[in-house]
Write a structure and sequence with these properties.
Helices cover about 30% and strands about 30% of the residues. It has about 400 residues and is of the alpha/beta class. The protein has two domains: about 5-190, Rossmann fold, CATH 3.40.50.150; about 205-389, Vaccinia Virus protein VP39 (Rossmann fold). The strands form six sheets. A seven-stranded mixed sheet has the order 7-6-5-8-9-11-10, with helices on both faces. The chain has a seven-stranded mixed sheet with strand order 16-15-14-17-20-22-21, sandwiched between helices. Strands 1-4 form a two-stranded antiparallel ribbon. The protein starts with a strand and ends with a strand.
Length: about 400
């Protein structure tokens, strides 16, 4: 846990040289001895393309800026910038890096809302999920007047198949430019044709554990079916002591917290996630499982950086199936960070019940944060840990 840092001042920013100027940037969340940069080749290509755009844009919509590199450079250059993102962490990063570089703060619009119409230019960091890409392109196409410019960029090893076809369908004919920095950029102008009908953003699957269809928006983990890690954690719920207040941390579509409510394991459940679409999905599923008046009293929702903004009464139980990817990379940093947050928030004697892939070793984090812990259950793929504060 020694490398986990929640103070933004604990890490020295790195110098990022861009066509719009040089900026000191850092990743958020921060960790000591960070080796990864807060920008990538796709960011540099997008900023270079902005400098080549005439007349110079006065306003920009930035989509999926992971660590604020795009927002910082554009805002510092006098371009009124709006960030359209699903991620509370990305919003924190943009606020941190614009402030560190004395740039004006950017407006943030969550992925569950519609951005302001008619920006001069759109900068799109192509997302990992194809369904999210379609949803974003369909929305963007409805914002832009004919002839407006969309710049899209992706790292070569992460470029989804069919990207050009998606751009063609939703926006206009794309022009793929020469690659640089292990990335490519596409220029697309909004065609004069009518916008195609937008796809249904969410998807349902039947959840036998709850007896209802569960809903998930495009950026929600395991949106097509109950993942096997959550299923294994659900199997262990009968072994837990019933409580008054519980938290479903990194809740996704809310299946774990809803199962705890349905089984009588908790009277009230808070659903917490850094994804706006996850929180929206969990809210919809809570309304499906519970009567509207019951849902208002038994369920609450927190969109933010895990439990860092927790200001409620301490919960007695936290249930968690933490992410084990940082974008495209397998990484246990998120899980260890959530374990520390849980240890800081839980009521004395409270418990964390966490499921994790066997190859991810959370033992040192549990030893740091908790009085005692044990393996509650395990199989060939997963372990369920029970830790007591």
């Amino acid at each position: 846990m020694s490398e986990t840092v929640d103070s933004a001042t604990a890490v020295t920013p790195q110098l990022c040289q861009t066509p719009l100027g040089d900026f000191l940037l850092q990743r958020y969340p921060t960790r000591r001895k960070e080796l990864l940069q807060a920008w990538c080749g796709a960011d540099l290509l997008l900023l270079e393309a902005v400098t080549q755009t005439l007349p110079r844009p006065a306003s920009a919509l930035v989509v999926n800026d992971e660590h604020g590199a795009l927002c910082t450079a554009l805002s510092a250059s006098g371009i009124a910038t709006t960030l359209w993102t699903d991620s509370a962490l990305a919003a924190h990063a943009a606020a941190l890096n614009t402030a560190n570089n004395s740039a004006p703060a950017v407006d943030v619009v969550w992925s569950t809302e519609r951005p302001p119409a008619a920006p001069d230019i759109v900068l799109l960091r192509v997302p990992k999920q194809k369904a999210l890409l379609r949803q974003q392109l369909a929305t963007i196409a409805g914002l832009l007047p004919a002839g407006a410019l969309l710049l899209a960029a992706a790292m070569d090893k992460h470029t989804p198949k069919g990207l050009s076809e998606e751009l063609q369908h939703w926006v206009g004919t794309p022009h793929r430019e020469h690659g640089q920095y292990k990335a490519h950029l596409w220029r697309t102008q909004r065609a004069a044709e009518p916008v195609p009908a937008a796809p249904e953003p969410g998807q349902n699957y039947v959840c036998e554990a709850l007896g209802i269809p569960l809903y998930a928006l495009p950026n929600v983990f395991s949106r097509e079916g109950l993942d096997i890690g959550s299923r294994f954690l659900l199997d262990q719920l009968p072994a837990l002591r019933p409580v008054t207040r519980a938290v479903d941390l990194a809740c996704g579509n809310g299946v774990i917290g809803l199962a705890a409510l349905q089984a009588g394991l908790a009277t009230t459940v808070w659903f917490c996630d850094e994804s706006a679409q996850a929180i929206a999905s969990a809210r919809i599923n809570a309304q499906r499982l519970l009567a509207p008046t019951t849902s208002q009293h038994k369920t609450h929702f927190l969109h933010g950086d895990g439990l860092l903004d927790w200001s409620e009464q301490a919960p007695e139980l936290i249930l968690c199936n933490p992410p084990f990817h940082a974008q495209h990379t397998v990484d246990d940093f998120v899980g260890r960070r959530l374990i520390l947050q849980a240890a800081q928030v839980l009521a004395p004697g409270g418990a964390l019940c966490l499921v994790a892939n066997r190859h991810l070793d959370y033992r040192s984090a549990l030893q740091t944060g908790f009085r005692q812990w044990r393996v509650l259950a395990e199989n060939r793929k997963f372990r369920v840990y029970l830790a007591e504060r």
